[in-house]
């Protein structure tokens, strides 16, 4: 993964549950202790027995829940924390509870194994991942009429395509499976020959292995209890807040001017979101601080200064939502930072990938030329007991070669194995500009660019995800066949569940996609305007906007260079450009929530680090899942036309006096 545990994918940033320090600790522990000695007396079930009905039933239920959670995050800020811990923990809890009940009746035929747990994990993450990589908060929703209208672009039939269940499901089925089949023949090379670490897959495997030890099972039970407590609190808190939001865009706790009305107008307030407090507890501290720094730089300094140039840099008569005015600066300067960060990391990861591939090929060549005695070989002699057992079972169940269609996503999958960075969004942006410019404005270049972005991102994203799953399966002795089947079934689930969940949001909240909405889908606007920029060029930008874009594009590259030159230990105080760019369009309210979560975790770690490390992810997951699941009943209520009974609104003293006079007259 990238610096500080960040994985750059799709529209926003997807953040993993473990930072670099914890992942290194996990891998060192695996080197010192023999994990497979603990499980050597337990039979490894065949690949067919790893694929159980109960596993896929639990996977389906968890997939629905996580799709709602990811969709809410995707349509609000685009910051998605890793839900691997939650998926593994809840999968373990549900199946373990089920098997205990069946065992009491004497009808249990097959015990719950870590291999089955891995199948559930793979299926759930593959399914809920479609809610993110499917583009519902970026390229796919960016095709819609409401996004196109906001950019003041002509909206004929070539410029937009409104969402509908039929074409969304069909599109996802076409593009989501290409990446899976492209890297199947490469799994032995990547996992065994090159021994790529795939840090996220390794960390997930360590988690699952720990669940199935006696001590780990006891801890998992306590973690589930904590997750359940905070899930209930978060769900009920969302329900309580709903009563005070009769006019959704103006009322409720989320509109509380924490730092005063002037700060509120500039998007500085705490909106009492349990979701983003939980996200802040999961994300590394540097991510939370970077987002806050970006909000202060943009909404605290830059936008007020540019607003003062109204009438000079842009017309004073333009509405606040016009992209020829202040809104244009917000969006395009943010895009410039995202592109600068993406280009730098693309070059960095590509160079590391090529260098790593060269070294691995050289090592392989050197090993093949070493003299081998009659009784030993260099490969087996250097392998530990764990590696020998894992390699034996990993190669036992072969996946038929005819499943593969080529090595389309090799570069991204290899780079992800070395660095844990997925460059899916960078490939997608390249597709937007190249295909959009090639097609041209008169031939639907904007839609062509966005569609090409979806194809490219899904191919490279699912390929790297599958290799992460293969690594998890390798370390838990799960069969590659069961991993592949689970990934395919999970992807198919996601191709149906995710569009259905988005369709609920789309119909329940008519203002979705607009800046004033509870679901502004900021990256849909960003991706549409990237496509527009690729097709039309810079002519539509406001005055001096292009110059500022160049400055922030270069600044993003420079900041990354400084961070890398200083190293991890000395660069902890330098913010991340990608995270800084997110609040440029949205504001800082969610950054304050995240920093509150970060502060809670920091204090907890100072008071009791062991307990914070053990239960912090569970508490954070409970906060995210509870508030995320409240969106289901709130959407149903909105579709049924049921409105909250109370509007809690905050006014200035002067406005309140005028209201009192009006009511008293």
Automatic annotation (TrEMBL):
Q: Where in the cell is it found?
A: Membrane
What is the topology of this protein in the membrane according to its UniProt annotation?
A: Multi-pass membrane protein
Reply yes or no: does the keyword Membrane apply: yes
Where does it sit, as one GO cellular component term?
membrane
InterPro entries on file: OPT (IPR004813), YSL-like (IPR045035)
Keyword terms: Membrane, Transmembrane, Transmembrane helix, Transport
Going by the entry's taxonomy, the superkingdom of the source organism is recorded as Eukaryota
Q: Does the keyword Transcription regulation apply?
A: no
Q: What is this protein called?
A: Metal-nicotianamine transporter YSL5
- Organism from which the protein derives: Sesamum radiatum (Black benniseed)
Q: What is the lineage of its organism?
A: Eukaryota, Viridiplantae, Streptophyta, Embryophyta, Tracheophyta
